[in-house]
Amino acid sequence: MTQPDDLLDERSMSKLRWGCRRGLLENDLFIERFFKTYGAAMTVSQAQAMNALMDLSDNDLLDLLLVRKEPEGDLTEVNVVDLLKLIRSKPHKL
Known about the structure:
- This protein has 94 residues and is mainly α.
- It contains 5 helices and no strands.
């Protein structure tokens, strides 16, 4: 049985990435940067949080990513909020 902290398997990751393709380039850029930075360590609970974000319209998602709005309702769940922080963050250069 899969646990929330288990790493996402390759097949699930592939399906998630496919489902995260968006109509707005700006959203795709945020999401692609997230996958490049954190994808290899993505957990089941993060994937569930990503799916919750992907249920949003492109404009609502962009507003969250650009910090024009903060999560409301079901999106205030801690895993969604934590994932949103990661997506919004800029990767650190070494």
